Amino acid sequence: MLHPNELQEPRARRKRRRHKPLRRPSIRSFVPNILTLSGMCCGISGVHMAFIGNMTAAIVSILLAAFFDGIDGRTARKLGVSSRFGAELDSLSDSATFGISPAIIAYMHSLNLLGNLGWAVSLLFAMCMALRLARFNTRSIERSDPVWMDGFGTGVPAPAGAYLLLLPIMAHQGFGLSFPAWAYGLWTIAVSCLVVSRIPTFLPGHKERAISNKHTMSVLLGGVIYLGFAYSFPWLVVLLTGGAYLASIPFSASRAYKRKASIVN
User: Fold this and answer.
1) Is residue 101 over pLDDT 50?
2) Of 131, 164, 184, 201, which sits most exposed with the smallest number of CB within 10 A?
3) Distance CA 144, CA 13 (A)
4) Burial class for 13, CB neighbours closer than 10 Å (0-12, 13-18, 19+)
């Protein structure tokens, strides 16, 4: 007959295995989240700059936030630490950085002249951005995008939407161009519609548009020239960049719909 202690020993072993301490995450797993939070801090700081009347610094803050947003996901993939937590944190940060902050900056610049209507238009942009990000999260979880949408996004991405919203302020800061408050209100509504729309837009980082080795030098040379012009004529470059992106939307939609037609037929 077994001793009671012998009967209890396997159970104790199972208990120790069940309560095995979790492995501590490595330091590198925090790097992408730090980049995401840095972008969010830049975006919210843009609101502070707008409150003290420094619109140039407010715009630079949003542009810095867009830079951090562009590298946090790539950093996570390079380090092999992509996670659902990081993806959710990125979306929550984007809602504040590229939805709420630009809406307040636009309101502080000129939409406030429209009174309650201007505030309503600002809220519209923030809501459309939240809806766009919620749709993106849902589709990334369900993987419900059709095959013909591979390489394309649905609607204008969050950083691009904030960039487009602030284009009139950039024109004012760089060239002294002034737009009536009602015109800026209409522009805000138009950008809000682009953000929440289902128009296919290019995804620059997609493998389909990866740079081949034979074009690497040309792209590097183009990047150096672009940075040189950006250093010498910053406001002109940011306006031309925004205009080029707007011009690319019809081409991206046309290409996506042609691919859809070829797949369906």
Assistant:
1) yes
2) 131
3) 45
4) exposed
The pTM of this model reads 0.85
E strand spans, the chain: 152-154, 200-202
CA 34, chain centre distance (Å): 16
- For residues 127 and 123, what is the distance between their CA atoms, to the nearest angstrom? 6
Q: What is the mean pLDDT of the chain?
A: 86
Place of tokens 């390079």: 78
Dihedral sign for Cα atoms in the order 148, 94, 127, 156: negative
Architecture of domain 28-264: Up-down Bundle (1.20)
pLDDT tens digit string along 36-47? 999 999 999 999
Q: How many CB atoms lie within 10 A of CB 69?
A: 25
CA atoms within 13 A on the CB side of 25: 11
Tens-place pLDDT, residues 108-149: 999 999 999 999 999 999 999 999 999 888 877 777 677 778
